[in-house]
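Input.
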Amino acid sequence: MRRRITQRELRNESGRIMRALDRGKAFIVTRNGVPVGELIPLRRRMFVPTEAALAAFADAPRVALERFRKDMDALINQDPTPRG
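Output.
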């Protein structure tokens, strides 16, 4: 649940609010009691080691590259002629 904070609280308590964002908290900012925006934490990128990625796809079926290319060529128009 997003906590409501006022514009004044955002201005005066920005450090506390930023630390809460770091912990994954989200806020709805209000002005005169009316919601005007949201503050939500950004998703952090997660590094996956090569070994873990290879292990995750170890049981995946092999891709027949020639067939894949033919299927893509049939699906996508790669004609370099300008369309305009």
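Helices lie at 7-12, 14-22, 50-56, 65-75.
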